[in-house]
Write a structure and sequence with these properties.
The protein is an all-alpha fold. The protein is built from 7 helices and no strands. The two termini are about 25 Å apart.
């Protein structure tokens, strides 16, 4: 596998994280939010849902914030031929940090663990963007 095609695998892995989270959201909503006719009405009309499903819902929203920059940088690295073993490793580490962040968010939701995981992912993403900037500046 060339480094260029390797850059797509972390993107695919992140997409699967989103799919897993949607599955978990459906499961938790069914079991903890949509438990009675009144609960369904509250959810439909006011967006009221159980805490466990709300955590997953917020985590899914997180997957379309910082990770949007991740997908953009992966594509930019690909189209500019700036991807290499280091950028692929950084991309994988970013995705691993997102899986870990999501796990903490939808289980214990302890900021003591969530915040550093977010910070690690953020730093990795900054490194990827910095690499692209350096690559383009030296071209």
């Amino acid at each position: 596998m060339s480094p260029t095609t390797a850059m797509f695998w972390p993107m695919i892995a992140h997409a699967f994280l989103v799919f897993i989270l949607y599955g978990l959201l459906l499961y938790r909503r069914k079991n903890q939010t949509l438990t009675s006719k009144d609960a369904v009405t509250q959810y439909r009309e006011k967006g009221v849902e159980g805490q466990a499903s709300s955590l997953v819902n917020r985590n899914i929203a997180n997957q379309f914030e910082l990770p949007a920059l991740f997908h953009a940088i992966c594509l930019l690295l690909y189209i500019t031929d700036a991807d290499n073993v280091v950028t692929v490793v950084l991309a994988w580490l970013f995705v691993i940090s997102r899986y870990a962040h999501s796990y903490v968010h939808v289980t214990s939701n302890r900021l003591r663990y969530r915040a550093p995981l977010f910070g690690i992912g953020f730093a990795l993403l900054v490194c990827l963007w910095a690499w692209l900037a350096i690559w383009l500046a030296l071209e």
